Amino acid sequence: MRNLILLILTATFLSCGAKKLVTSKEKRFEGNWYLEKITYNTDANYNVTLFNDASKYCFEGSSWKFLRDNKSGNYVVNKTNCETKVRDFKYEIGNEDTATGFYNLVLTPINGNISKSYNLFLKDLDMSSMKWQESRTIDGIQFTIEMRFNKFD
User: Fold this and answer.
1) How many C-beta atoms lie closer than 10 Å to residue 9's C-beta?
2) DSSP state of 46
3) For the chain, which residues make up each domain, given as ranges?
4) What is the rounded radius of gyration, in angstroms, for the C-alpha atoms of the chain?
5) Is the pLDDT score of 7 beyond 80?
6) From CA 91, how far away is CA 72, in angstroms rounded?
């Protein structure tokens, strides 16, 4: 009987393990962040528009806020010559991608009636920093965009 109870408890914990891992990531995700740096894995000089909104130049230095309770947030671009209004979004942290070991991250900006989701990877996350990764194909060339954030609250 004791072995049966132990087996049931073990199965229960294992089946909830992935959800608990995502929940712990969401707890660390919550708060105020600063988008420090955006890099590409190529030396080519592309003027990439991120989230159908602004350039790399505008996004570097932007302030981001993530709310865990309703999986929403906003960001503000802070640079001169960039539109500085508050942009709202929804997000979802999915399960770990077996090929990369990163977590799937879906970001959906809320721009009036336009709702396009962006699939990213949550590459690294701790209590004070995180990295996102996005793959793009431009002019037939596959490359990776990495966004590095620092937490400031």
Assistant:
1) 10
2) -
3) 18-151
4) 18
5) no
6) 6
